Write the structure tokens for this entry.
Amino acid sequence: MVRASIFAVLATVSTVFAASGQNCSLTQLCPSDTPCCSQYGQCGVGAYCLGGCDPRMSFGLDSCVAAPVCESKTYDFKNLDRVTSNTKYLGDSSETDWVSDGDPQIYNDNLLLTMAPDSVGTLLASSTYMWYGNVKATFKTSRGQGVVTAFILLSDVKDEIDYEFIGVDLDVAQTNYYFQGIPTYSHGANISLSDTFNNYHTYEIDWTPDQITWKVNDEIGRTLKRADTWNATTNQWMYPQTPARVQLSLWPGGLASNGQGTIDWAGGLVDWNAADIKNNGYYYATFQSVTVDCFNATSAPGTNDETSYTYNSVAGTNDTVVDGKNSTIIKSLIGTGTDPDAGASSASGSSSSAPSATAETVPGRSGGESSGSDNHAGDSGSSSQTASTATIATDASGSTSTGSSDGQFSQGGSGSSSSSSSSSSKSGAEKLGASQEKVLKGSVFAGIIAVVAMMAL
Ligand SMILES: *[C@@H]1O[C@H](CO)[C@@H](O)[C@H](O)[C@H]1NC(C)=O
Ligand SMILES: *[C@@H]1O[C@H](CO)[C@@H](O)[C@H](O)[C@H]1NC(C)=O
Ligand SMILES: *[C@@H]1O[C@H](CO)[C@@H](O)[C@H](O)[C@H]1NC(C)=O
Ligand SMILES: *[C@@H]1O[C@H](CO)[C@@H](O)[C@H](O)[C@H]1NC(C)=O
Ligand SMILES: *[C@@H]1O[C@H](CO)[C@@H](O)[C@H](O)[C@H]1NC(C)=O
Ligand SMILES: *[C@@H]1O[C@H](CO)[C@@H](O)[C@H](O)[C@H]1NC(C)=O
């Protein structure tokens, strides 16, 4: 109910204002009034300064809010109690395991990442960061051309370790890695396995300072040694080495607005009239559980002794990560690393702070950006794709499904007939989710969001 009114307000607001966030990069840092560079390369405050905030591209190294250290834990998805929308999350990982963007749903004690028509899908990011360690996720992917399911580790300086699944290649898990988001088209490798839509498989990333192992159902699918990643030009290891969030996502690689390379990679444009849309109102990927086992190093790199990770240099390498005591929490969605108390409602709910008037507070995604450095050959100039293929024989032992191959559920028509949007069988909540995406995707007028988000807390 609160939600409905919030989004009604936002929808109205967004049509009135057309604020435009500034872009940020290594060569164009954010300005002081919107100091935080989001995962998507735009400047803002609030959620822009939380998970994904890139200290190298922000106004200062201390603009981003510190990142909660690793916690060893198994997450099952019996409810959404510890999943918090990125429009409400303020950095307290003791109360939130996952920060969501989009429309996560629970179905039969599993988490569904959903992607309804006109949405950019759903993304869940862990509230805590892994600095090396082991993470495994048991899930079934979505399907269909242009539909991408992903399970990745992504650091704030854009080190990345990936599993990605294209909805038309259901017998392949694509693996990849990036160092600081530098687009290299030669780091991919495939793992063959049985139908990822119909079978649960357990996908594992075992990450140490010297080696990354991708395992599916306990079998090694790929190994990468740091020793093999030396870049003689830059004199650096092009190897993921900084604290990273676990990200689970379902996103439309096949959106017309994406780069042609991404669309081709994703198997073509998304069909918004596919059977899954007709039957359920959305595409979906089904996550059963995620287990994080921290690396627990006794000395850096890879410790989780204190409360938070920050960086002490724009180099963004493992030796610039500080495992310290800086606070991870802001008081409102206009807070920043250097002004965490901004907007604190000391008197009443009135929005006191002037700086919020034009700042964006919740970063939005567009279709092609759901996983950090997801560049694809062909998006911007050409690149030769030289990569290896690792194959493991996988019996269907991962399968715990009951056999039916489609339409195993329908959640849509629960009687909530919301006024707006399309004629598909989406529930009211789903439609809200979709319109939320549209609002956040466009430029959002921050002060309103901040106030509204505080009201909703
Ligand atoms: C930011 O970058 C996007 C994509 O390159 C571009 O379309 C947009 O105009 C840029 N915005 C600003 C404010 O420079
Ligand atoms: C962490 O806290 C210390 C002590 O308050 C401060 O000097 C430092 O700038 C903070 N670091 C970051 C990256 O915020
Ligand atoms: C992985 O598989 C996909 C689809 O099956 C294919 O297009 C791609 O070229 C393969 N990548 C590698 C690195 O072999
Ligand atoms: C950490 O970074 C430094 C500086 O780039 C490098 O010399 C060292 O090998 C790195 N160590 C690991 C474990 O990646
Ligand atoms: C080395 O680093 C440069 C600069 O980031 C990059 O352009 C190049 O592709 C890298 N070389 C290799 C072999 O990865
Ligand atoms: C790290 O410590 C946690 C908490 O004590 C423990 O549960 C976990 O098994 C440890 N992980 C490793 C790899 O030692």
